[in-house]
Structure formats: C-alpha cells, structure tokens
Amino acid sequence: MTPNTETLLETIDPELMERVVSRRDALGSVSKRTLAVAMASAPLALGVLAKNAFAQGGLPQGIKDVLNYALTLEYLEAEFYNLGLAAANLIPSATRPVFQQIAKHENAHVALLRATLGADAVAKPTFDFTAGGAFADVFTNYQTYLVLSQGFEDTGVRAYKGRAAELKSNDAILTIALQIHSVEARHASKVRRLRGQKGWITSNTTDVAALAAVYAGDEVTTQAGINTAAFVNAAAASEAFDEPLTAQAVLAIAGMFIVST
Amino acid sequence: MSNLNASPGAELEFLGRLANATSRRTFLQWAGLTVGVAALGCGDDDNGTGPGNTPGVNLGSGDTGVLNYAYALEQLEAAFYIRVLSAPYSGITAEETTILRDIRDHEIVHREFFKAVLANGAIAGLSVDFSSINFTSRASVLGAAKTFEDLGVSAYNGAGQLLTSDANLLIAGKIVSVEARHASAIRDLLNPNSMDFAGDDVVGPTGLDVVRTPAQVLAAADPFVVNAINANQLPTS
After folding, report:
1. Which residue ranges make up each domain of chain A?
2. pLDDT of residue A26 exceeding 70
C-alpha cells in the first residue's frame, strides 16, 4: 500500500492529471460531481497511476485487461442501479437507502477504475436489462429487480476473486480489487436477505432458474485438498467459501445484458 | 509518574502496569519486553491469564505466517460465536439465531480448514478473553460481532498482497467475501434497511472497503486474545 499518498499526489505527473480530468466529459451515467468527489478522494488510485502507469511506462496489459473486465461489470451494475432508482414506483421507500448506497458504490467503482485505466478504459457498453425480454418487467416489478440485483452482486463477487491472482504483480492494484470485492459481497448479502434468502450461498442452489449460471460450481466442499464438509456439514462448508467464476462464465452471464460494446 | 524514580524494578513494574491498562500484550510485543517482564514476574497479572501463564505464539514467516495470522483470527471469531450461542441473549429472534448459528458454523469451518492446511506449521489454539463483552446484551453481542467481521474483512483485504502463492490468494479471496457477507448481515440486524450494511464508516467515498495491516489488526484483536502474538516475521509486501 502507498504509505504517503499526499506526497504522491503532490508529485503527480501534470500530464496524467490533464488526461484524467479531460475524460470527465465522456462519462455517460457518472455525473461530473460524482467523479469530482471520487477524484478528490482517490489519492490511492492516483498514486497507483503516478507510480506505475507513467513512471514505469504504463500498466502491464494483463492488469489492464482485468481492470477493464471489472470496469465492464461495474458499468453494468452502476447503470442498473441508476435506472432502478430513477424508475417510478419500483423501489419501496423502506429499502431505498439500501439501493442508494449500492448505487453510490458502483458509480464510485466505475470512476475509480476509469481513473486508474485512464485512456485505456473501455467505453460503457449499451445494456438491455430485460435480456431480450426474459426480464421484461425489471424496472416495473420490484421482485424481478431484486432477482437481477442479487445475480449481479453474486456474479461480481465471484468475478473479482476469479482474477485476483492476475493482479499479484502490483500490490496496490490487487488490494484495490480486494477492497471492491468485499464491498460487492456486502451488497450481495443484503440483497439476498431482502429476497428472504440467506446472505450466503448454500451449495449451487437458487430459487430462480434464470440465475443458475451465477451459482454453478459454488457447491464445492473440498478446499486445498481438505474435505471441509467434515468439520460441520456440507451446507456450512459450501457457505463458508465463495467460489470463483471464470472470465468466460462471467462474460456469458453479463453478455445476456449487453447489446453492444 | 513519580514512582519511575524509585528503582529499576519499579520502573519495569510501572511499564507492565501501563501496558496492562491499555493494551498490554501488544505494547509489550512492540516494545520487545514480553519475555523480560514476564520473567521478572511483575505483579500485574492478577487474573492469571497473562503472558506469564500463557504461551506466546509466533505466527512464522512467508505464506505460512499469513495463513497462521488468518487462523488466529478465525479461532477468535469461532470462539466468540460458540460463546454467543451457548447462552443467547434474551429476546433473540429466530432470524438472529439462524444468522448467528450460520456464522458460527462458517467460522468453525474456516478455523478447522486452516488448522488442517497448516498441519505441523499451525500455531497452537489461542486462549480468548471476552470479559469486555456482555453476552446477555443484544447490543453488546451484535456490536462485538460487527467489530469482528469488519476486522476480518479488513485483515484479509490487507493480507492478499502478503501472499506468494496463487492458490493461497484464492483461498483468502474465497473466505473474505463470506466475512463481508457476515458483516453486512450483522450490520443490517443492528440498523435494518439502512445504509449500514455497507456503511460509510467502512466503505469510503471511492467505494473501497477497509484494509488493515497485520499490526493494526492484531492491535485491535489484542484485548480479546490472551496469548502474546508475535507477527514480526510476517511478510510486509
């Protein structure tokens, strides 16, 4: 981690600052104010940029690929919550603070990843949250909205952990990814509980057939060759470890909602 | 402070008392005094659970050290929830019981997993001290649970970069998200349907969860662990 981010901020490359700030106009669903807040309070990301992206000739392509993969998922989540909060009579007032908080985080993740990637950030895809009509009432039926929210959050948790090892060459970026990852898990737990589910995932089961791909392979009860079902039982063993998803599996899930990139 | 001038022995005893009053084991560990003070048998350990009677624990180095660090935290968490469920606070709801039982079982799985995977490299079982927690009080129990879960999340988030092996990093990733799910549920029990499940106190304006170094985590855990924990050999990056 960066011990003294203020110093890094002070010495940040002016070219970098101009490059990041100049991208504010192309932000789409992220308001300038949101980015301004994120920029003002994102010394770590800027420190990473200053330290790696420029001083050392840019981030390795492998890391950029993972960050753009994450950014694509964050674009999807941010737009999903921004549209949900804007939809009339969708989210009940009693749970509105929950979705406002989640939306705030997803928009912050988009801003942070875009700032870190700079000119290498992928553009926001065009989304269709009905998935071609499969979830036609997503923005008029709260239960449908909750189903997709749960699916996106649980997918996000599995997606980040699946690619963490590819970030190992950069401690600061790995740690940022882990810090995003646990926020997604906090979200997932809350949204699941809003649906009357446990906050954790038991085996590979889901009450929604359309979400089956999100939970495929999560029933594992062997970790590092050790039978974890022997300690309490198989349910606790599967709940106690969240399994990763491959990029291919994640993109297949997200792809159902992406019209064009 | 006047007794500092009395004699070298009194000075050591004062240091022992000072540490005991704040955060004894951490203070002594960082001051490098654990062995010295304990060997002098200074009379600060009136509950018989201090370092004079309880073996100190060295987490070790490399990935083994980091896994032992996780094992120590999981031991603490499991012991806490076992204690909570052994005599639940009055008025506990069915939902709260289910959540606390599930979390207890997860922490036991984590604890036993680390013990098994570390095998001969595992630290000993730790002795815990929950005397600061009122187990008859819902607020005290859930408040402590929130502290432990948030601490666990921040610990794993900070430990990722300390691990060398991809497999160990993945294991840590598989566990930290479950700890975050716990934290979310406990926080939501305390303040339902508010923003607190992922509150601004733990998720900053950039959307990032808390990250802590082992030194920070062990200092926070210290009041609940009787053993002196030596983390000096842990990797730092």
Report:
1. 60-200+245-260, 202-241
2. no
A36 in contact with B, Cβ within 8 Å = no
DSSP H helices, chain A, are 5-10, 14-21, 32-40, 43-48, 61-86, 96-117, 142-163, 171-194, 212-215, 234-240, 247-255
* Residue A180 with chain B: CB contacts under 8 Å: 207-209
Domains recognised in chain B with CATH numbers: 2-40 (no CATH), 57-230 (1.20.1260.10)
The model's pLDDT over B176-197, given as tens digits with 9 standing for 90+, comes to 999 999 999 999 999 999 999 9
Are B203 and B223 within 8 A, CB to CB? Answer: no
Supply the CATH classification number for the domain A60-200+245-260. Answer: 1.20.1260.10
Q: How far is B78 from chain A (nearest CA, A)?
A: 12
User: Which residues, numbered 28 to 67 in chain B, qualify as contacts with chain A under a Cβ-Cβ cut-off of 8 Å?
Assistant: none
Could you tell me if A33 lies within 8 Å of chain B, comparing CB atoms?
no
Is pLDDT of B11 > 90? no
What's the complex ipTM? 0.83
- Nearest CB among A41, A101, A157 relative to B205 is that of A41
pLDDT at residue number B2? 37
**Contact status of A132 with chain B (Cβ, < 8 Å):** no
